[in-house]
Design a protein that fits this description.
single chain; alpha/beta; Alpha-D-Glucose-1,6-Bisphosphate, Chain A, domain 4; seven-stranded parallel sheet; six-stranded antiparallel sheet; about 35% helix; NAD(P)-bd_dom_sf
């Protein structure tokens, strides 16, 4: 069948596309920024088109000639996600009703009875809008998804690993029915073949029903950690819990709040009618799902992460006149005896466990400040310790451009009164060696933005100058000792 996937750059979409291809389907991947899919291992097997789910024209073009549309888009990382998801769902539903589309498949969340969190209510509403399009729609509702790189799993992993003893809210005793990402992809893939008369929501879940506390203790056992001691405190609200998650895990407050608000409810499948149409996959119990996720993390083989999805960005302002002359730039350039390829290897390995090559304490403090402000901080790390991919998250940056082996451009996703970029270049030297060029660009928003730049400018020689010196020094060191592992020069 001809399948179009909205959300192909996201956590689930990036895993669904190769599964659809392996099942023999043709795939059209829709992305706001097609370049983010440039390095996907399945890129040459799909048709990639530019599109935005709130743009009716691009949605209609994406649906043209397709049999099945997968809708895997959520705006959880944005404050007004409820309104955005409603508008996007209506745009896709209207376009689908006017097309020759045979089916819509949507991944939502299990919605228990009673007052729902904004997150669960929004997902339920999106499913209802798509079903109301008149096009046969399968809404697959899942609770917590366990898989390497999922937001729910990263929250579970960091809470359990970093806190041997913890004070917890009452909701850790609520029952949940997690499902492995491989099983989610199984149901999504097979949903393309549902009979034409089937248009409804289905609950999907794994074989285990347990409390969040039991899942944390299960994680500790699988990961080989000592037993975790937990003291529940009824007064801890979901909002307070989210602040704690924001500090301890890579999941920022903007995502942690709706996720935890959803955990206040018991999210357990109320039916398993999907089995009438789709055979169940081999049972993936919680222990096995956690083991598979940890294996991928240890092997640096995480194909997609929750942080892969990002808000659209405006272009880098290269000309000060672009914004009325108020663009600040810090440029550093150094010549090095290192080979250009050796220099590039250091550039591409920046961040994560390798740090940022200057003043580790300053980077760590800035990261904590960003976390307190609800930003990404430095804990998102990187997917692979050596190779980057365009569009992926790198600590508090986003890889906006990767022109291997010459240029790396990072867009800041930290909380600052403006927009910031960091560009790193490697070029051959005229008389051998290489030239390293580093450019930090900041476009301030209002007076606060100007004051921010002025306040940090005195430290730029230490931070940016030290970064340039240490990156070139590391490249030279690696050429002398190519078998040695790269030293850690900057803390995260």
């Amino acid at each position: 069948m001809r399948c179009v996937v909205f959300g192909a750059t996201g956590y689930v979409g990036g895993r669904l596309v190769p599964a659809l291809l392996d099942a023999g389907h043709q795939v059209r991947a829709v992305a706001r920024t097609p370049g983010k899919l440039e390095h996907a291992p399945w890129r040459e097997r799909v048709e990639v088109v530019r599109g935005d789910v709130i743009d009716a024209t691009s949605v209609a073009a994406a649906l043209d000639g397709q049999d099945v549309a997968y809708y895997l888009v959520h705006s959880l990382h944005q404050r007004d996600f409820v309104d955005l998801d409603r508008v996007a769902a209506r745009t896709v539903a209207d376009a689908a009703a006017s097309s020759a589309l045979q089916r819509i498949v949507y991944l939502g969340g299990i919605a228990p009875d009673g007052q729902l969190s904004a997150h669960l209510a929004s997902r339920k509403e999106v499913g209802e809008i798509l079903i109301g399009s008149g096009v046969p729609t399968a809404v697959l509702n899942a609770a917590i998804v366990i898989g390497s790189g999922s937001a729910s799993f990263e929250m579970l992993r960091h809470l359990t690993e970093r806190l041997p003893a913890m004070v917890t809210p009452r909701w850790v005793h609520n029952r949940i029915q997690p499902i492995a990402i491989r099983d989610v992809v199984h149901y999504l893939t097979r949903a393309a073949e549902l009979p034409a008369g089937v248009s409804r929501a289905f609950d999907i879940g794994g074989p285990d029903v347990l409390t969040y506390l039991e899942m944390m203790r299960t994680y500790a056992i699988v990961a080989g950690l000592p037993r975790r001691f937990v003291l529940p405190i009824p007064v801890l609200s979901p909002w307070l819990s989210a602040q704690w998650v924001n500090l301890v895990t890579p999941v920022p407050r903007g995502i942690a709040v709706p996720l935890i608000e959803s955990l206040v409810h018991e999210v357990v499948c109320r039916e398993h009618d999907i089995a009438e149409y789709v055979p169940d996959p081999p049972a993936t119990h919680v222990e096995r799902a956690i083991e598979l996720a940890l294996t991928r993390i240890r092997n640096a083989d995480v194909p997609t992460r929750w942080s892969d999805a990002s808000a659209p960005s405006d272009p880098l302002p290269t000309d000060p006149d672009w914004s009325g002359g108020s663009v600040y730039v810090d440029v550093r350039e150094l010549r090095t005896t290192a080979d250009p390829d050796a220099l590039w290897r250091v550039i591409e390995a920046i961040g994560g466990e390798h740090g940022w090559y200057s003043f580790p304490l300053a980077w760590s403090v800035r990261g904590w400040i960003d976390r307190l402000a609800g930003g990404a901080g430095l804990r998102r790390g990187r997917r692979d310790p050596r190779r980057l991919h365009e569009g992926e998250a790198l600590d508090w940056w986003r890889v906006e451009l990767l022109d291997r082996p010459r240029r790396l451009r990072l867009r800041a996703e930290m909380r600052v009164p403006g927009r910031a970029w960091l560009e790193l270049y490697a070029a051959p030297g005229d008389d051998g060696g290489a030239i390293y060029r580093q450019r930090a660009v900041f476009e301030p928003h209002g007076l606060a933005g100007h004051l921010y730049w002025k306040s940090v400018a005195p430290f730029h020689d230490i931070v940016f100058g030290g970064m340039a010196r240490n990156i070139t020094g590391t490249a030279e060191h690696q050429e002398v000792r190519p078998s040695a592992s790269q030293p850690r020069l900057g803390g995260t």
